[in-house]
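Weekly sync notes, structure subgroup
Attendees: PM, AL, DS (notes)

Item 1: joint prediction request from the bench team. They want all two components modeled as one assembly rather than separately. Inputs as received:
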Amino acid sequence: MADSTMSQTARVSPGAPEISRLRLPLHWLGVTPFFVFALVFLILPTVGLIAGAFKNAAGDYTFDNIIALSQPKLAAAYWVSIQISFVSAVLGALIGLAMAVAVVRGGLPPWLRSATLTFSGVASNFAGVPLAFSFIATLGRLGVATILLRDVFGINIYSLGFSIFSFWGLILTYLYFQIPLMIVIITPAVDGLKKEWGEAAATLGATNWQYWRMVVIPVLWPSFLGTTVLLFANAFGAVATAYALTGPSLNIVPIQLFAQIRGDVLYNPNLGYALAFGMIVITGLANLFYILFQRRAERWLK
Amino acid sequence: MKQGSRFWAWLVFGVGTTYFVLPLLATFEFSLRKRRGEYSFDAYRSVFGDPNFQTTFTYSVVVAIFTILLGVLLVVPTAYWIRLRLPNLRPVIEFITLLPLVIPAIVIVFGYIRMFGSNSTLPFLATARGTDALLVIGYAVLALPYMYRAVDTGLRTIDVRTLTEAAQILGAGWTTIIARIILPNVLIAVLSGAFLSFAIVIGEFTMASLLNRPAFGPYLQNIGANSAYEPSALALISFAITWGCMSLIQILSRFAPRSANRPN
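Output from the run, pasted for the record:
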């Protein structure tokens, strides 16, 4: 790394021009490995894919691949993905918020709060193949809950049209990591609601509903929206859970892309790059909105 | 007002808890049903006795350890240097470390397959060892956001500048400062990042599967497609591993120093 005597001399006499000219590159030396790593293993591979999305097989620049994303099968994949991500994000956010509010401000015993937060930390990381197994064991055709509902309550959910391998089955499974993620992220914001605000509102004669409508919701709104788009991106990029649950048959973008990487099922590598590019655009936009909302939310969390 | 809101709080909490506990109980019950007519731990015995379980699990543990080492080597000196000398670069580094959350893992690995093929300048995919290395690198990228945040939080609680100057006065070089002064001081934060990385890496499916490595994630997926009761046992084992990692992080956080730059 950098030469220590050099930077010490520089600190002693910061005015000396020839030293400061030498200082600059040496400073950068300390972060070079990180930047080289990020460039080679994160940025270049991604930029390469994006560039590939705008090229044809001969290497000429074209918009054909982007236009080809609108072919029925791929457009449907994007649409189903967006729907699944959207519904699981909104439900996850609402339920997660309700649970966070219940645990933080609902007058429940304090140990429940730490237990909930600990469990949320675990469950938000419990995605992927094992999660799919759990839900098949619970709500699959021979799952414990399915049998219980059928034999004890006389409700056969599969004859009612439910399936764990369907749209709603997938959403029910995704909620298992979406709700905890919401709880983990939103609890600090709920904590940030100051007691004084409630007291001030009550002093001014506000009803409970008015306090919620005019104080709590406006304060929590940016955090809520921000976290919701983060959950959206989280669901949109999830491959393993959906793949283990439904196999390669489900027509969502990550699974299409998985099949494409495995065996070029689209018969056009560049179209595969375009598929990946579409994913980056959607998750990128979601994260952009997250950052914007978060910046707005931080105002109240000082 | 208080009474009513408490009722709602309990109701919400109760429904939520049911949703979260039921699948775990159901999975456990299901995993005991391998022997006809009675409960047994046969599914677990069959899982632990499966040589494929042993090899894939060991493989993933080794990959996780290398991932953590790479992550620490990459993040600790960088985060330290940013704090000490280049605070202006902080937003840039933070942006880069957030990118793996923006770019889905499947896209990153797709980029690798395209860029590091046998005929490229960096032919990682030409050999099995090279592909292993690429998997470790990919996992280090996935864990980067968590590792960086953990280490940066740890660095915030120590006085980096004073420690560095004191070490320099005593004649320490940069390697000594980072390895013997900074690292021990942020060890708890580094370990938190390490356990989180471990939890992410151990059952990861997408990257391992697309790079064709014999890891635990693809093994899980394969078992799920081919047997009935073992998947439930494996799901609970995975849950226990995740739980263990998170508990260790919580326990460690109790030992972490609270605030920085205290004069005494």
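Discussion: Confidence is low (pLDDT under 50) at residues 1-21 of chain A.
Action: AL to compare against the crosslinking data before next sync.
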